[in-house]
Amino acid sequence: MHTDRRTLLQAAAALPLATAGANAAFAQAPAAAPAAAPPKEVTRALAHYLVTASYDDLPANVRKEGVRTLLNWVGVAIGGSHHETVDIAVAALGPFSGPQQASLFGRRERFDIMNAAFINGVSSHIFDYDDTHLKTIIHPAGPVASAILAVSEMQPVSGKEFLNALVLGVETECRIGNSVYPNHYDVGWHITGTAGVFGSVAAVGKLLKLNEQQMTWALGLAASQPVGLRESFGSMNKSFNPGRAASNGIFAAILASKNFTSSDAMIEAKRGWANTISTKQDYNEILGDLGERYEAALNTYKPFACGIVMHPAIDAAIQLRNENRLTADQIERVDVKVHPLVLELTGKKTPQQGLEGKFSIYHAVAVAIVEGAGGEKQFSDRAVTDPTVVALRGKVVPVITAGIKPEQVDLTIVLKDGRKLNRFIQHAIGSVEVPMTDKQLETKFSDLADGIIPTAAIRRVMDACWNVEGLANAAEIAKMSVSS
Hints:
Elements: H1 3-13, H2 42-52, H3 60-79, H4 84-93, E1 102-103, E2 110-111, H5 113-125, H6 141-152, H7 159-180, H8 183-186, H9 191-207, H10 212-223, H11 237-257, H12 273-277, H13 284-287, H14 311-324, E3 331-338, H15 340-346, H16 354-357, H17 361-371, H18 381-384, H19 387-393, E4 396-400, E5 409-415, E6 420-425, H20 438-449, H21 455-466, H22 475-479
Parallel strand pairs: 3-4
Antiparallel strand pairs: 1-2, 3-5, 5-6
Helix pairs in contact: 1-2, 2-10, 3-5, 3-7, 3-20, 4-5, 5-6, 5-11, 6-7, 6-9, 6-11, 7-9, 9-10, 9-11, 10-11, 14-17, 17-19, 20-21
């Protein structure tokens, strides 16, 4: 780490900070009182780190996770590219798009970089199948990757520059998310949008080679654009949020590159971002061990196309179904012991559309037992109206249970013959503790891209992602990810 960066960060860390202990996955911490006096230099210290951090600073494991993040994001962006939501966005924005600067993943159209970043961000999130930082439930890649891939088509960006920007963007949004989670999320903000704009602006600002003052202003302009409310969950509006965070970050970085000013303390000031949108402000989560501890190394990837809190139940249901060769007609009842967050986020009993099914623990468990999977097909309009699935979900009984953590589930299938089959999941597949393998990520990618881009192109795109560090121009990934 550069000596001047360490000195500034240590000086900032020594100032009074409002603290609340580091969050475990999905932790529900009590509200923390704000600092007696606003701490100084948080925004500027973060900006200093961002402009001085280089690719060579990244540990090997962080680089590898950055590559996995990219591969997963490209797959879900292609996979969601022909959803009705994206069709509507393309039709609505097409007449207003500027120069054809950037690709739309999985499609033939080209848009200006801000609209392309927005649409690709929407596309990557519409299936709720993207990456997840479990400590904050942020989906990090959507706001960041969609922004910097669009910018890469406007100006040459080497693969190493691209990967460094991607990691820095993910690191920034997750650290800022840590500083206000869970209080900020609990009151109704969609943290992927509100923190995601910081990831986008940090990554784009890095590619635009902003100086420290410009990056400070860019972060400030991002702070002025929080987007996303949890009320949107289950509608097209949810995927709007990471898309808008991506385009807002580009907007802020480009303005700052021309010296459009902002406050130098927009994150930490008394009337700044953190104090305005949360009752908790832990600035050590933003500045602590910068360049040494990486939140980006904790990114995870979904094996199931729905809210992360349902993954343990789906995992348990599929395991019991496969081990016992179960069919729906054998089942009397399915008891699911869960954390309160599960019903808060996924308590829809009778989803009528695929998007609603992604927020129904009843549907998720039922379809997992009936079809033995939890992919996008299991959260389609077809699946939520399937008579067998509908009948079984009426037998799913989720019960809020003391001692069950959000990442756990205790699931019991009661059979008509009196047998009880039980599975307790401590950590579901796709978690930090039980990560998806590279091969599983490739299988997921191939399933999502099948029928959208040519079969031969699927392999080429995956290889380009795995080898991004060797690319002369990262824009190659975008250009080869469009439909023929």
